[in-house]
Amino acid sequence: MDASKRGRPEAKANGGAKKFKPGERKESEEKEDIAPKVRREESLPHPPSGSLYLHISLTLLLTLSSIDHFGEIFFQLILKVSDHLTRYERMAVVLMGVSGVGKSTIGELLAKTLNCSFIDADNFHPQSNKEKMKNRIPLSDEDRIPWLEVLRDLLNASLVSGKIVILGCSALQKKYRDILRYADPNFKSDYSCEKCVVKFVLLDVGVELLLNRVAKRVAEGNHFMPAELLQSQIDLLEVDVSEGIHKVDASRSPQDIVDEIKALIL
Ligand SMILES: Nc1ncnc2c1ncn2[C@@H]1O[C@H](COP(=O)(O)OP(=O)(O)O)[C@@H](O)[C@H]1O
Ligand SMILES: O=C(O)[C@H](O)[C@@H](O)[C@H](O)[C@H](O)COP(=O)(O)O
């Protein structure tokens, strides 16, 4: 399929969608240039692939099968370890939410913890998008879709090479997240992929704290996003309860947040 078309959202009614405002609990729960930069942490190797573990397991089984039922017990143990380790493979974790929730802060820390790449979606906005935001004009679908398609292709490249990757991206609406979901080679429009490897974690912070964080960041000259645009993002944030998105209280310390995300996704 034409890569530029793949993952374009259909115009869909968002039936059943539930809106979460920042701080609300779930019931059940500048760079001036356009050139994209992907920060990589490649100092440590990734865990070996599942097939290698399977191979080791089978070899051990053959070796130990001659020693009564000890071999069978040991084989089960190896399978459990293999299952745990292979869950680190081929996964894209999208840290989502409105401006200031901590996508960059938490994304960098999480990626460091997992020895994987972190992609900050902000670095992939074309200059025209940044100018709009600087001028207090919210982005439109036409502004966001090509940006999301670039991010989808980056995630896809990581996934097909068997890597884990973290993306910090607002992904405020289901139609935007659906574009990113197509990074998963197994994702189908009817959501039938059995083991979807693009996972979303919604970082949640109350409005007052958010405003403080964003205003401080702008005052320090560290970001193009003005606090005045925050409300437009809060209004747009929509999470369908059926999407199975993890929601995390991101008003805590970065380490606590990272620990919770690790426990949720690994
Ligand atoms: N858990 C946290 N505790 C304290 N300050 C935080 C936390 N997360 C982010 N911040 C601060 O809030 C501001 C916005 O964080 P950032 O990671 O840039 O958010 P986002 O990428 O979602 O816009 C930054 O100044 C950052 O240092
Ligand atoms: O979809 C959008 O309207 C933008 O991508 C927006 O969501 C993003 O928030 C800005 O780029 C600010 O960046 P931070 O979210 O990192 O503050």
From TrEMBL:
Belongs to the gluconokinase GntK/GntV family. It catalyses: D-gluconate + ATP = 6-phospho-D-gluconate + ADP + H(+). This is Gluconokinase. GO terms for molecular function: ATP binding; gluconokinase activity. Its EC number is 2.7.1.12. InterPro entries: P-loop_NTPase (IPR027417), Shikimate/glucono_kinase (IPR031322), Therm_gnt_kin (IPR006001). GO terms for biological process: carbohydrate metabolic process. Residues 1-11, 21-44 have a biased composition (Basic and acidic residues). It holds the Pfam family SKI. Residues 1-47 are annotated as: Disordered. The keyword Membrane does not apply. Keywords: ATP-binding, Kinase, Nucleotide-binding, Transferase. Pathway: Carbohydrate acid metabolism; D-gluconate degradation.
